[in-house]
Design brief:
Number of helices: 2
Shape: globular
Strand content: 35-45%
Radius of gyration: 14 Å
Helix content: 10-25%
Strand order of the largest sheet: 1-8-3-6
Structural class: mainly beta
Distance between the termini: 29 Å
Length: 119
């Protein structure tokens, strides 16, 4: 499955996970910052965009069962991105955790979790 969506600098994609790998594709606008946390608690930060001199990547594979969240880097801007999931996305594979749940699992990432969760 594949979806397009517009992410603005006024919002973020909250930490969530799915069972499958998910490929993020950058199309236009501001680059985005994407964070992952593995089940073991390892944090990685990526920049998805098209400025290769700044080490941005035009696409990124988020491994299945990794928590991930994203935001637009530039203020007053947007990013047009798409996500491809295989096998196809199914809502039964989607988990949107509470802030308290993630902080209890990964207290070392409390500040990041607070920034990218809804409560």
């Amino acid at each position: 499955t594949c979806i397009y969506f517009l992410l603005t600098s006024d919002e973020f994609s909250a930490f969530h996970k799915i069972k499958q790998d998910e490929i993020w594709h950058f199309h236009e606008g501001s680059p985005i910052r994407l964070h992952t946390i593995s089940e073991e608690g390892n944090h990685q930060e990526y920049c998805i965009g098209t400025n290769f001199l700044e080490d941005q990547k035009p696409q990124l594979i988020v491994p299945g069962n990794h928590w991930f969240a994203a935001s637009v880097i530039e203020t007053n801007s947007y990013a047009l991105v798409s996500c491809t999931v295989s096998p196809g996305f199914d809502f039964s594979d989607f988990v949107l955790p509470s802030r308290e749940y993630l902080v209890s699992k990964y207290p070392q990432h409390k500040q990041l979790i607070h920034q990218y969760t809804l409560k």
